[in-house]
């Protein structure tokens, strides 16, 4: 097997009683490009909401940091940095002394981000890091420099509740007294608004999901026919969960060369691809308290669709 973890995860997921493929596999170069298109869709409100928060409330965020010496702004999974740039711009305008430390697993993403940031904010001091969040965070935790950690974009919504606790425990472990964590949470709202954001009429979200099958074909020698699958997404307003699926339209068998296996699908059988959980402010407070954090402030957009929630360690 050429890419052991991808092939192994696909094999485990496609032989499980409820077939599943982790949403982390959405983001190859093609999938990341489709996600950029999703963020531009009129139905996909989270990007515009968080852009508004970081553009208009940077000064409020800065005031709450209360750092008495130069600090680091450490960002996990920085993406294209367009939203973060709004916050960094305000910090620079306010005369804050800080370094920006974007962390991403993809060298390509980091290289593009650095070029982009240098173009728009020439005075910004950047210390990019390529690697996974936790090894990078451990590396930083030895230093006495105060840190603002950024986990933006509503990415926390893609974690199962049990995994949220594990993730926050890892963040918490590497944070020292006074450090802050700013996390983006998509909020519960009119269910129809959420449904449209995750099942758009132009079919961009469907293409995002189909790319998983195309990716298995490209990278693992799969034989998926995407026209034999459909996309289905469901929002449950009672628990705040959007769950997305691929649906097998016919009984079919698919061979994947790298795993050496044939996978059988019944008609209407599901492959679960993503959880995108929506929170209430009370749930956010509970998650923070459970994991050793205090909420300092919720920075909401004007429609109250999204919050960047600023926490400190207890
Ligand atoms: C990256 N993540 C926060 C997005 C979300 O809203 O859950 C991924 C996404 N999936 C479908 N549309 C966008």
Automatic annotation (TrEMBL):
Question: Which keywords are on file for this protein?
Answer: Methyltransferase, Transferase
One GO process term, biological-process aspect: methylation
Pfam families from the UniProt entry: Methyltransf_33
**Which intervals hold domain Histidine-specific methyltransferase SAM-dependent?**
7-312
| Enzyme Commission no | 2.1.1.44
Tell me where the signal peptide lies. Answer: none
Q: InterPro entries from the xrefs?
A: EgtD_Methyltrsf_superfamily (IPR051128), MeTrfase_dom (IPR019257), MeTrfase_EgtD-like (IPR017804), SAM-dependent_MTases_sf (IPR029063)
Top EC category: transferase
- Transcription regulation as a keyword of this entry, yes or no, is no
Quote the Gene3D superfamilies the UniProt record gives.
Vaccinia Virus protein VP39
Output the Gene Ontology terms for molecular function: L-histidine N(alpha)-methyltransferase activity
Q: Does the keyword Amino-acid biosynthesis apply?
A: no
Q: Which PANTHER family match?
A: ERGOTHIONEINE BIOSYNTHESIS PROTEIN 1
Name of protein: Histidine N-alpha-methyltransferase
Q: Which gene encodes it?
A: egtD
